[in-house]
Amino acid sequence: MSMETQRLSASHVTVGHPLPGDVYDENGHMLLSSGFVIESESQLETLLARGMYVDIATFKAHFASGSATPSSEPKKFDPFLLRDSLKKRLNRALRTLGEDSETTAQIREIASGVHELAAADPEGAIASGLLDDEENYAIRHSLLTAILCDLTCTALDWPADKRLSVVCAALSMNAAVLDLQNKLVAQADALNPQQQNLMRSHPEAAANKLREAGVDDPLWLAAVQEHHRLGGDTGSPRALTQPGEAGQLVRLADVFGALVSQRGDRKPLAPPQALRNLLIQEGHGPWVALAGTLVKVLGLFPPGTYVKLANGEIAVVHRHGSAANAPLVASITNSNGNPYMKPLRRDTQNKEFAVAGLTLRGKLATGYDLGLLWVRTMRPA
């Protein structure tokens, strides 16, 4: 069968909606007929990994930018659901890096998905990363780093191609040490010499792995190689030159993500504390302005931060408020620590609900899927 086709990405297909045309695999064999309804995210993930193609006429009519026929049915945007989808795809892509000729293209598609998530709801994107405490630390950490890089690149008005390279670097920066990272996050003892060597050399190892898989984007590769380097760090690979701003942005987002994560040898910091530590660490160095932009993107109280209110309730920051120090929050427990059946929205500009301190999730019982706080209806124009 010979015809011109276009590959579909996650942004083209909606679970629960009928397909507008026949879908083929990369060899031109029909996978799904027009009108077929994909019933679950896992089913969609499997199909996307295999490769979903439509003929070019169908693509232009239904999937190309601006060509889709608006639906009268309101759609819901769920940043947490999209995050989970991106995580599954990223895990699969990094685990098969180099085994499949499409893998590097898949990482770029995932990077585009990160931008879709961050652009549609920046606060929901941040919260989805900060509130993710599921297993597979290596993947969720890389995704959080990528989200923060995407938002910061946008705030800095970097060109789209540069932003894509940086986000790809954040997604793949630890490609050589995925299993080791998952082990270390639960390890209470200090790293042994072998682990130290692997962690010290992993940026170069990841870059080499990407090259072998076909990545030829110099900015992507450089950012991966330099994401643990500081200016003047003569003990690290490629230390003869000053590291570039792309790699330093990945480094800053990486450090912040590590500080807010539970590890076997230390407790996590609350996001505002991690931001303060990051600014102190950068001091008056060459990347303090870059760190400052990342802090502005996250805000004084990043969405997903747990706080204690003046009335004794424990709440999670939902969105930024009209004042930087007065976020909009959702209380999840009363003053006695008993969970509300449904979070109660609070404006911390009200003295009764003012932020009195920071707290960590720990063993907090919520009795509610917090991700639902960020689900919103997107009505057609």
Record the SSE blueprint:
Elements: E1 5-7, E2 23-24, E3 30-32, H1 41-50, E4 53-55, H2 56-62, E5 75-77, H3 79-95, H4 103-120, H5 122-130, H6 137-155, H7 160-172, H8 178-184, H9 193-212, H10 218-225, H11 245-259, H12 271-282, H13 288-298, E6 306-309, E7 314-323, E8 326-333, E9 339-347, E10 355-359, E11 376-378
Antiparallel strand pairs: 1-4, 2-3, 5-11, 6-7, 6-10, 7-8, 8-9
Helix pairs in contact: 1-3, 3-4, 4-5, 4-6, 4-7, 5-6, 6-7, 6-11, 6-13, 7-10, 7-11, 9-10, 10-11, 11-12, 12-13
Q: Would you mind describing this structure in some detail?
A:
By secondary structure, this protein is an alpha+beta fold. The protein has helices at 41-50, 56-62, 79-95, 103-120, 122-130, 137-155, 160-172, 178-184, 193-212, 218-225, 245-259, 271-282, 288-298; strands at 5-7, 23-24, 30-32, 53-55, 75-77, 306-309, 314-323, 326-333, 339-347, 355-359, 376-378. Helix 11 crosses helix 12. It is globular, with a radius of gyration of 22 Å. The two termini are 39 Å apart.
